[in-house]
UniProtKB/TrEMBL annotation:
One Pfam short name: Tetraspanin
One GO cellular component, as annotated: plasma membrane
Residue ranges of the TM segments: 42-64, 71-95, 233-253
Entry's family note: Belongs to the tetraspanin (TM4SF) family.
Localization: Membrane
Main localization, broad class: membrane
Signal peptide start-end: 1-25
Protein name from the UniProt record: Tetraspanin-2
GO terms classed as biological process: auxin-activated signaling pathway
Protein topology in the membrane: Multi-pass membrane protein
Length: 270
């Protein structure tokens, strides 16, 4: 029984350590400029990571001090949390699968169409009710102003592949409009205003830019998709380890219960 409990304690310690990359991924997601402006997606991963940390700590204490009731509660709660984490992973994968990007000839960056993203993201993240707050939040960030510090000439800007989807959609007009580059957030003399409805929404007012454009909404979704895809890789690896730890912990707990029952039987208690 002691050996089984020690093994369970070690496994719980490993599960506790697994909660660190989950929480770190959530904090990283929440700290991104786009996620800071989208409250809906900011904290679910962080909350799950903290809950797994707390439950794993309880399981470690229960195994170390031979508290079978606490261990049983731990196994039940951990199963629920692993299930919730799987739901979050599957949901994030499904809603971020569609990619609204398309290449622009002669440009190192891509542009984005709102129609290319999932219906759920469009309906729940960038709908008209939410966008007013998101737009004001984005205008207060340094997402666009820092472009003027990074790129001086048009060639530098056009050849860059480091421009994010958010910057591509919100900080400049669509390429099809035919605006002439002055600096990354200042464009003049369009030649094809009819090419896109966003051409009429572009403003050289630094507090406006293309924040009201559909291309900005698409850029925000492009950033969210990119960030969540990166986080999902870490979460997938972590959840696989958690499932492996949980299965072994369940087996160790069941074997310990069987050994305890057999010992009592031999002593004549049963």
């Amino acid at each position: 029984m002691a050996l089984a409990n020690n093994l369970t304690a070690i496994l719980n310690l490993l599960a506790l350590l697994c909660s660190i990359p989950i929480t770190a991924s959530g904090i990283w997601l929440a700290s991104k400029p786009d996620n800071e402006c989208v409250n809906l997606l900011r904290w679910p991963v962080v909350v799950l990571g903290v809950l797994i940390l707390v439950v794993s700590a309880c399981g470690f204490i229960g195994a170390y001090q031979y508290k079978e009731t606490l261990l049983a509660v731990y196994l039940c709660c951990m199963a629920i949390l692993i299930g919730l984490l799987l739901v979050v992973l599957i949901f994030a994968f499904v809603v971020t699968r569609p990619d609204g990007s398309y290449p622009i000839p002669g440009r190192g960056y891509k542009e984005y169409k709102l129609e290319g993203f999932s219906n759920w993201l469009r309906a729940n993240v960038v709908d008209s009710k939410n966008w007013r707050k998101i737009r004001a939040c984005l205008a207060d960030t340094n997402v666009c102003p820092k472009l003027t510090q990074e790129f001086i000439t048009a060639d530098q800007f056009f050849s860059s592949s480091s421009i994010t989807p958010l910057q591509s959609g919100c900080c400049k007009p669509p390429t099809a409009c035919g605006y002439n580059f002055v600096n990354p957030t200042l464009w003049l003399n369009p030649t094809n205003m009819a090419a896109d409805a966003d051409c009429y929404l572009w403003s050289n007012d630094q507090s406006q830019l293309c924040y009201n454009c559909n291309s900005c909404k698409a850029g925000l979704l492009g950033n969210l998709r990119k960030d969540w895809r990166k986080a999902n890789l870490i979460l997938i690896i972590t959840v696989v380890i958690l499932i492996w730890v949980y299965v072994i912990a369940c087996s160790a707990f069941r074997n310990a219960q069987t050994e305890d029952l057999f010992r009592k039987y031999k002593q004549g208690w049963v």
